[in-house]
């Protein structure tokens, strides 16, 4: 076997073994020699560095068995029969939910690889190589910033490690403060951006960014987008209870930098946002090959009536109610006005609830009597897509269209893209609108950027004269609609500190009764098993996994209330 290939394979085995170790911050015995071999070769160094990408969070359904359970099912967005969700629904976060237990170690495993690379870069004989070590460094800094962001948004301040640890070091370290963690991430992102703005390599240049074979690696835009998201977290009520306008202004400026790049634009078609190879709206995505029926689609999202094993990602009526009612001058003409369905004069008809709604509703939700896969969806008892009792059918009379491409049905062999989007331009626009509204009130720019997002879907602009509070609520509603099922709602609710209002509200469903060729609709509560316990203050931050607390000999302090 080629020596380089052998060394690389051996190193991968050692990395995988290290991932199972109890002390994931520790450098395991036996890896020193292979690392020395690897970091004597630029190609193997780059391949070793690329392993850090494997620890990124990279799919929507990941909370059980690797393809079931979304963070949206922790909120008012959706529910469903997923066992791993129960600890969070009950408020018992010390249970074994993967987002709480495994994310902590997963991020530090990635950080350990990154710190090893950053420490060894100067030892690599780069002269004559096609690789630029500064570009490698920029990637590692971005990924470390990404991993620490995933930690800080879940746990608050965490242990900051900027180098790998030796086998003999004491790694029972105290947590850094939340403020120190944020500052650490910002420093990494600044250095990464400074490098990516000026350095080039055989597959990257500041003007053209990455070549086609490297799509999905960090760019200047991605660095800026992560910074903007971090500053939105920092400015929001969870970490800014006094409402310090300076923090909101910093968040606004971070998003405005991306807008002023004039590089990104909203994709014209909202419905296919997750299903295209490239898009002017993509800032950074997880590159995925087209996937066949099964797994995520067949055993989690699809109706049994369409060939799915379990259709247990069930949008709630609470979520459906976020989509505004619209009016048109003619049945097929453009929308001329819209308003929340609870507003007097909205035109919403409870007995024709799916007519004349925000067009994004039809892109995101599968509902009774809609045409889908060449047939009518049947959400009534005795219909193809719903049964009382079996948990493999929807509990709300809705399925998620956004994550269910229409080609996926019984007997299908076709493939489809379902990309995981890290950052897209619509978030930048809505981040800017939210931060501007909080720092300066509902200015013309706030209207400008939220209305851009609405206009892409064919929705009219928001009414003039909204107060700051009213605009805040409209922006929050807009985010709930625009980013439906995209792993955003849970984190938005946490940073807004709206857990009691949105997480533990009564979840509702639509009861559908077929009467001949007509239907009767009534909103009803979802069964008790799918409701949530009252939200507690301690739930805004996850507990540090108990195994880490217990082995730290009292050094690692738990989050309040846990």
UniProtKB/TrEMBL annotation:
It is found in: Cell outer membrane. InterPro entries: SusD-like_N, SusD_RagB_dom, TPR-like_helical_dom_sf. One of its GO terms (cellular component) is cell outer membrane. Its main location: membrane. SUPFAM superfamilies: TPR-like. Keywords: Cell outer membrane, Membrane, Signal. The keyword Signal applies. Residues 99-200 form the SusD-like N-terminal domain. It comes from the Bacteria. The keyword Signal applies. Residues 307-562 form the RagB/SusD domain. Belongs to the SusD family. This is RagB/SusD family nutrient uptake outer membrane protein.
């Amino acid at each position: 076997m080629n020596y380089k290939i052998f060394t690389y394979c051996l190193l991968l085995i050692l990395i995988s073994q290290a991932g199972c170790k109890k002390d994931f911050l520790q450098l395991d015995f036996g890896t020193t020699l292979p690392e020395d071999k690897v970091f004597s070769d630029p190609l193997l160094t780059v391949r070793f560095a690329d392993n850090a990408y494997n620890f990124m969070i990279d799919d929507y359904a990941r909370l059980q068995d690797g393809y079931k359970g979304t963070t949206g099912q922790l909120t008012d967005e959706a529910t469903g029969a997923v066992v791993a969700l129960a600890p969070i629904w009950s408020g018992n976060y010390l249970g074994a939910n993967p987002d709480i237990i495994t994310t902590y170690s997963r991020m530090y495993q990635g950080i350990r690889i990154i710190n090893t690379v950053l420490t060894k870069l100067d030892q690599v004989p780069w002269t004559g190589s096609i690789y630029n070590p500064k570009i490698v460094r920029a990637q590692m800094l971005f990924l470390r910033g990404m991993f620490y962001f995933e930690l800080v948004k879940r746990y608050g301040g965490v242990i900051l490690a900027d180098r790998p640890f030796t086998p003999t070091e004491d790694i029972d370290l105290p947590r850094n403060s939340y403020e120190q963690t944020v500052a650490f991430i910002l420093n990494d992102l600044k250095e990464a951006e400074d490098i990516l703005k000026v350095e080039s390599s055989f597959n990257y240049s500041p003007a053209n960014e990455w070549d086609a074979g490297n799509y999905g690696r960090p760019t200047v835009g991605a660095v800026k987008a992560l910074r903007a998201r971090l500053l939105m977290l920092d400015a929001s009520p969870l970490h800014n209870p006094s409402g310090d306008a300076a923090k909101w202004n910093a968040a606004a400026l971070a998003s405005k930098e991306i807008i002023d790049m004039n590089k990104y634009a909203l994709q014209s078609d909202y419905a296919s946002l997750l299903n295209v190879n490239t898009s002017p709206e993509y800032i950074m995505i997880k590159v995925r090959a087209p996937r066949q029926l099964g797994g995520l689609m067949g055993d989690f999202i699809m109706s049994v009536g369409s060939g799915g094993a379990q259709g247990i990602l069930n949008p709630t009526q609470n979520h459906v109610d976020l989509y505004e009612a619209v009016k048109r001058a003619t049945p097929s003409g453009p929308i001329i006005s819209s308003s929340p369905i609870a507003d007097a004069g909205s035109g919403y008809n409870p007995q024709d609830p799916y007519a004349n709604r925000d067009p994004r509703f039809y892109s995101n939700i599968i509902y009774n009597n809609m045409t889908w896969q060449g047939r009518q969806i049947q959400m009534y008892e005795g219909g193809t897509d719903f049964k009382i009792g079996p948990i493999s059918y929807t509990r709300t009379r809705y399925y998620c269209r956004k994550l269910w491409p229409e080609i996926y049905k019984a007997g299908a062999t076709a493939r489809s893209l379902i990309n995981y989007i890290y950052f897209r331009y619509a978030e930048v626009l809505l981040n800017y609108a939210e931060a501007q509204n909080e720092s300066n009130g509902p200015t013309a720019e706030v209207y400008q950027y939220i209305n851009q997002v609405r206009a892409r879907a064919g929705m009219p602009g928001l009414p003039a004269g909204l107060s700051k509070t009213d605009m805040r609520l409209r922006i929050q509603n807009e985010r709930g609609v625009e980013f439906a099922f995209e792993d955003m709602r849970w984190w938005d609710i946490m940073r807004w500190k709206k857990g009691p209002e949105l997480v533990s509200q009564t979840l509702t469903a639509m009861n559908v009764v077929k009467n001949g060729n007509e239907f009767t609709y009534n909103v009803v509560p979802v069964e008790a098993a799918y409701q949530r316990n009252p939200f507690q203050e301690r739930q805004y931050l996850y507990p540090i996994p108990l195994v880490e607390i217990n082995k730290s000999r009292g050094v690692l302090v738990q989050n309040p209330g846990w």
